[in-house]
Amino acid sequence: MLIFVQLGFFVASDEVICETNVTSLYTKYHKRAKRSIFQLAGMIKCITGCDPMLYKGYGCYCGLHGQGVPVDVIDKKHDRCYDYSSCPHLLVYLMPYQWTCLRPGLGVCGTADYNSINEKCSYQLCECDRLFAQCIGQYECPRKKPECGISSMVYTFMGK
CB–CB of 62/54 below 8 Å? Predict the structure, then answer.
């Protein structure tokens, strides 16, 4: 049985169509949920094969305090998904989750007890990371990071 959860990507069966008004797919593969920002890096490596550091400070919108006009299709998608989750804003970059890389190109998230706010949040964050990795996996690994054009002071503050 497949259950749809509003998150931030439009998904049709197992195909990700990176759109703005979107919905994540509750996968049929499950485990117990746990996460950190390092798990996003692992998910990107598993699903895309790209070096996750290529996306650190990518564009204007990716990451904490992202803002401005997205520089391309990759920029902004991930944080938008976080906006649709039921997680408290301060936890979206810190909440752990459990996931498994079944094989290159296939990462799966653990299950969530929807009576537990923390487990629900963990699962939703895992799905955001998984769907984001699938979305960017449709494109070649970036050779260089697009620049945002914001001041170097803001850039330094944002860790880019």
Answer: no
